[in-house]
């Protein structure tokens, strides 16, 4: 009888260990499970789907030139939006600046504008840690106009 009880105790111990292994394995599988994302393909005209945003308008040749000039001369320090990089984001710059002539002077040589005592120029200079903007004396006013057209096309 004692021998039978010992055999039952051993069998029960083995059964408990087996159940523990199954439990741990199942828990590990549950934890590591990553379901595939559900992709719902909307049907044309489905009113439950939000409308697709309109594609951005194609840039005209002048704005395309402005985009290239912006990327090559301005994008290292400025965003075309509101984000500050080194200098301010240029969204809305045509409306913020005192005049187009002021922008020409500022872009050609901002240090000269600051040195002249220009209030708006000094405000920008001080706001951005007194870091002078790089001068671009070789950009023609038409190039600056192209950059401004590109910026305006970006929502500015």
Automatic annotation (TrEMBL):
Q: Which Pfam family, giving just one, matches this sequence?
A: Cytochrom_C
| Chain ranges passing through the membrane | 12-33
Cite the entry's keywords alphabetically.
Heme, Iron, Membrane, Metal-binding, Transmembrane, Transmembrane helix
Q: Which SUPFAM superfamilies match?
A: Cytochrome c
Question: What InterPro entries does the database record attribute to this sequence?
Answer: Cyt_c-like_dom (IPR009056), Cyt_c-like_dom_sf (IPR036909)
Q: Which residues form the Cytochrome c domain?
A: 61-155
Report if keyword Transmembrane is assigned.
yes
Instruction: Name one molecular function that GO assigns to this entry.
Output: electron transfer activity
Q: Which domain of life is it from?
A: Bacteria
Q: Write down what this protein is called.
A: Cytochrome c
What lineage does UniProt assign to this protein's organism? Answer: Bacteria, Pseudomonadati, Bacteroidota, Cytophagia, Cytophagales
